């Protein structure tokens, strides 16, 4: 038979066990709460970092598109300049040809003028010569 002392001792042991268990449960609950809080903080930080990464990707895409547009614009401007340069070269070449033609024609006109002046002088001298011979 179990004696009263034994019962008290068992009761006391059970109470101690329950108290220890309750304290351990409280400690574990606090740890669990702290861990959950830490998990929530980490989750929030991960979400924040994910947002930053997404914004950075969007910005990168935007900048890539802007750079591509600038590259295309500069390519078009280069083509315009090359085309304009070609036209200027062609105009310069044409101007040089026209200038050479004008110079040649002026030279020819000067020679013709010299011949005309010579003929005119000869004609004047012939007109004077018959009068002088009289």
> Roughly what is the average pLDDT, rounded to an integer?
92
Radius of gyration: 56 Å
What would the principal axes of the Cα set say about the shape? rod-shaped
What's the story with the biggest beta sheet? none
End-to-end distance: 192 Å
**Structural class, judged by helices and strands?**
mainly alpha
Tell me the helix content.
Answer: over 70%
Strand content: under 5%
The total beta strand count reads 0
Topology pattern, helix = H, strand = E: H
* Uncertain segments: none
Count of discrete alpha- or pi-helical segments spanning 4 or more residues: 1
Plain-language structure description:
The protein is mainly alpha-helical and 134 residues long. The chain is built from one helix and no strands. It is rod-shaped, with a radius of gyration of 56 Å.
What are the main properties of this structure?
134 residues, mainly alpha, rod-shaped
Question: What's the SSE blueprint?
Answer:
Elements: H1 4-133
């Amino acid at each position: 038979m179990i004696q009263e002392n034994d019962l008290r001792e068992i009761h006391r042991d059970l109470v101690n066990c329950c108290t220890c268990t309750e304290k351990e449960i409280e400690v574990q609950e606090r740890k669990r709460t702290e861990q959950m809080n830490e998990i929530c903080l980490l989750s929030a930080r991960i979400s924040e970092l994910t947002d930053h990464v997404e914004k950075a990707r969007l910005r990168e895409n935007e900048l890539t598109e802007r750079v591509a547009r600038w590259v295309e614009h500069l390519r078009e401007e280069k083509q315009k300049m090359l085309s304009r340069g070609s036209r200027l070269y062609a105009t310069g070449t044409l101007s040089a040809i026209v200038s050479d033609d004008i110079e040649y024609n002026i030279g020819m006109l000067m020679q013709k003028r010299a011949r005309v002046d010579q003929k005119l002088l000869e004609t004047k001298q012939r007109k004077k010569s018959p009068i002088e011979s009289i």
